[in-house]
Amino acid sequence: MMSENDPAQAFLEEARELLAKLEEALLELESDPGHTPSVARVFRNLHTIKGSGAMFGFTEIARFTHDLETAFDKARSGELPLSPELLGLGLVAKDHIQALLETHPDGGGLIPASDAILARLAGVPGMPGAPSPAPGAVSAPDGGPAGGPASGPSGGQEAGQAPAGQTATYWVRYRPAADSFATGCNPLALVEELTALGQHAVVYHPGPDEPLESYDPEKPHGFWDVILVTDAGEEDIRGVFLFVDDGEAVRLEKIGEGRPRGGDLELLAAMTRDPAHDVGALPGLLRGFLLDKLAMRASGKPREAVSHTPGTSSIRVDSGRLDRLVNMVGEMVIIQSRLSQAVNQALDRSCLAQIAEDLERLTDEMRDNALGLRMLPIGTMYGNLRRLVRDVSATLGKDVEFVAEGGDTELDKTVIDRLKDPLVHILRNSLDHGVEPPADREGAGKSRRGLVRLWAGHVGGEVVLRVSDDGRGLDAEKIKRKAQAKGLLAPDADPDRREIFNLIFEPGFSTAEAVSDLSGRGVGMDVVKRALEALRGSVDIDSEPGRGTTLTIRLPLTLAIIDGFCVVIGQGSYIVPLTALRGFQERIPGENRKTVDIIERMGKMVPCVSLRALFGIREDRPDFERVVVAEVDGMEVGLAVDRVVGRQQAVIKSLDEMYKNVNFITGTTINGDGSISLILDVPRLVDFAASHAATAQ
Asked: Which of 84, 192, 338, 634 has the smallest number of Cβ neighbours within 10 A?
């Protein structure tokens, strides 16, 4: 199992980012094959994945990526046409590399799939030859075949190499000199040149942890162990390090004759990872291991598998944010010292008040900065969504353009991760139900090519996303009839257009005439609504027949902390989120106040919800009620409470079981005195009050 600081885990994280960029560049080339910078991006991403994979022992990724890199290198230089077939294979290969990242570094059972894709690549017009054998796919000891095709310097036997009987296995340890960078040496390039000599497995040792203040970024701090299977002699191997070996930098040992079987290289490399093995004894241990492998082959005993499990996800953080956080920690240490001194010397109230004010300011800044560390541009998921639209529209036989805007809008990483599935459902529905087939669009006087647009931005302290299409739109009458047939709507009901459209979020509701692979079973939009509500978000829908449909999603910036005002009703304490707040005023409480009535605000009549009446609180009334004025869907609404305590930062905690079915309570927070406040979801609270008032009439 990999630890958080394992360099291989860093490779996995980087490789996933590179694959996302690779997919984005390939999709750009599908729409604009002549865009030269995108071809260069594809090549660079493949080259980096191959090189890093080889360096960290992911031999199958390096082998598989080699021919693909070669193809796009030829496309970059104009030697190979950038055909739809090549771009399609590029996307297939991207998915396959993603799968390889989740399995054993030697490819596990995915090598046949690798070879099938490489064979297809070899058949692309303009590609010379066919793929070469996979690592370890050489003659078995009995002389029979032991593997299939592969390619490139990252594995297999190179053209012109000597027969397998002249091949040997070497252990190379390369420890760069302390002044390597200063003399212009590139250790990574040397390791890559070494691995080009034959089949290999690479282990990087990062070296001991060092305090940040003593760490010198201008000096190398780690070293490499390379297990190399090659017919090149020791002289050729040492020739790689001709200008950097001072007698200490490189250690070379021949540890076996011939070629180990596929997968054995990684087991050899795994032994070099074990710090319990003495460096001086390591060559002997490796030789013994090779002898043991020959014995196991003779006896037929299976070899033990090497575990490989993915690590936890990580996040890239802007160094400026980290610098600010470190500075604020320093300020907090100073304030803590001032506070201790004030307690010891019994300083006066004004001094303590100043310390409390400074601490509050610093806490606000640290909170904002810490939350900022988790913020990511929402555009990080646009590549996957663009690929989804491409694949689904092709499956449906539709031509659809996907336009994504506002990718630099930042959102909490947790929210982004949990937002992906709802967006996938929404886009699939837009493509399946919304955008018409090309012939139908042409008959309706539209362009044969449909449009799906995703927009994101910050609006009033929230993140708003809009997914719109220019398709057929929703048929309100059809939805109404279907809802009445399912018993979701009374036969004599006369709902407005918004209420009708919101019926598509009811469980089991679907207007599809037939079940398809994508939709029609009534599963999807209700799941979308529940998923967004779990994120303390909301979704609204609007549509115009013949012109399209728009879904609007509203989400909080973070799931951890919110700003709000603490209010009290009877003995209960509640938090009204600051994003919904628009002002305050007072009114005299009446004996028989309705749940919903009217107040005057700045010359306008505004509906007002008595939370005392809504919650059925019977305790003594205050002399004056405070009205918290909030904004809901562009309309001001008053919330009458007993008193307003003041502004408060709420650290959100999950709901107790007793509140699970109260949809206008989004969470709880612990107050400074240890009591608990419930956090109100104002839009749902207003909806609940409206339905309660309608039922009471």
From this structure: 634
CB 256, CB 267: distance < 8 Å: no
| Among the ranges given (192-196, 258-262, 478-482), the one the predictor scored with the smallest mean pLDDT | 258-262
d(CA 201, CA 222): 17
What confidence tens digit (pLDDT) does each residue in 504-544 have? 887 766 665 554 555 544 446 778 888 887 787 888 899 98
- The candidate with the shortest Cα–Cα distance to 650, out of 353, 367, 372, is 367
CB 639 within 8 A of CB 615: no
* Nearest partner of 260 among 311, 198, 318, 208, judged by Cα: 198
Range list of H helices, 102-255: 111-122, 187-195, 234-240
Continuous segment of H or E residues that includes residue 420: helix 413-429
pTM > 0.70: no
Highest-pLDDT range among 254-258, 373-377, 407-411? 407-411
CA distances from residue 333 to 123, 327, 340 in whole angstroms, order as listed: 66, 10, 11
- For the CA atoms of 28, 33, 35, 41, what is the dihedral angle to 10 degrees? 60
Which of 587, 588, 593, 563 lies closest to 679 in space, CA to CA? 563
One-letter amino acid identity for 695? T
pLDDT at 551 over 90: yes
The per-residue pLDDT for 124 is 85
Give the end-to-end CA distance of the chain in Å, rounded to a whole number.
Answer: 64
Residue 360 burial (C-beta neighbours within 10 Å; 0-12, 13-18, 19+): exposed
CATH superfamily of 378-556: Histidine kinase-like ATPase, C-terminal domain (3.30.565.10)
Topology of the domain comprising 561-696: SH3 type barrels. (2.30.30)
Q: Where are the domains of the chain?
A: 7-122, 164-299, 320-373, 378-556, 561-696
The whole-number pLDDT of residue 519 equals 53
User: What kind of architecture, by CATH, is found in domain 7-122?
Assistant: Up-down Bundle (1.20)
The 3-state DSSP class for residue 612 equals helix
Angle, CA 484 vertex, CA 478 and CA 485 arms, to 5° = 90
Q: What is the pLDDT of residues 559-579, one digit of tens each?
A: 667 778 899 998 889 988 887
